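In this section we walk through a basic example: taking a raw amino acid sequence and producing a predicted 3D structure, encoded as discrete structure tokens. The instruction is simple. Fold the sequence below.
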Amino acid sequence: MAELTKVFLDEDEIPTHWYNIAADFPNPAPPHLHPGTQQPLQPADLAPLFPAGLIEQELSTQRWIEIPDEVRDIYRLWRPSPLHRARRLEQALGTTARIYYKYEGESPVGSHKTNSAVPQAYYNREAGRMRLTTETGAGQWGSALAFATQIFGQSCEVWQVRNTYESKPYRRMLMETYGATVTPSPSELTAAGRALRERFPDTPGSLGMAISEAVEVAAGDPDASYALGSVLNHVALHQSVIGQEAIKQLAKFGEQAPDFLFACAGGGSNLAGISFPFLRENIEGRMNVNVVACEPAAAPSLTEGEYRYDFGDSSQMTPLLKMYTLGADFVPDPVHAGGLRYHGMAPLVSHAYHEGLLRAIAIKQREAFAAGVEFARAEGIVPASESNHAIAGALRQAKQAAQDGTSPVILIGVSGSGQLDLPAYSEFLAGNMLDA
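The resulting token sequence is shown next.
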């Protein structure tokens, strides 16, 4: 058992149900509100943007929701994802900790985002909606939805944050390879985009701005839907397959539970996916896992934001969400972790943080990339820019363990591959990277 380097589960061990943490919070999560009436959202309020199947999941407090057979069959392309023991990293650090990482980079687009893109495309297909619009930061979500819509014969229109559209051209090429159309945001194609360009002429863009454009287009077409890659409850639900698998895999390594779990946090989908099944174990008293959200110092919504109702987009077109927020108008510095450049945090993650079920730290860009390089040189996997924040948090803990003489079990969520982020690594290695 001690010699294992990685553990795979059999395909028949892919979770059969998604886990919904809303069923297990000691205190219920605050509801989404209609921006006009200030009353809790009703299913009809979301119908212009989402199909009935996703609306039901968004508002559900049911603990387990069955994964459709067709979705589960597509999951087999990359799930179950492996859990690795980072033995070479442990040696490089000289740590007494036992380090594991759940690697989502083996999915078709190289990240965890396909876990939600496929069911979102599926439920839209079932409702007869064949045109999907979305936003993307780093391009991971846009690539995932482009892939998923190709499976179900749908069209996909992506508004990519202008900064990453320009700095990550290979992400755009990947989306286009899957058949999507990609537009830098803010653009001249929508009223929201034109207004934002007038207000912020030199803006690098933000996820909030790109959301506004994608929502506007979907709301104007009764045959279209908007698809979101993070933040909303149904996205966190879909991602729960990550943590469910990790619990089984740690047991095969002979570990009862991790002492620490580190995951990057921007909108919250990756953090929720790996941590919520462990938080359920904490709530039920079976584990005592210290969950740490690792957010970028350029967009520190948990560590510096306010817990209040706010819009999910810059043009205030979305429902009001109770979340930790820096304000819908906040435009983060154009750091390389484009998938984490969001002004708010998922309502379910925010509620968990507010209830003291997890804690958060902010990581600066150079520390994140230094950790990513150290990880790559030891383990051979180049992590996504976003994942580097989780690795940086874990390395802090591992180095502290060596000083303290303790042997904690550390689990890292490595949300994706950084093969398309190599220009950012080149900038770091050349000594030209700024923290902001």
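Looking at the output, two observations stand out. The longest helix spans residues 387-404. The mean pLDDT is 95. In the next section we compare this with other chains.
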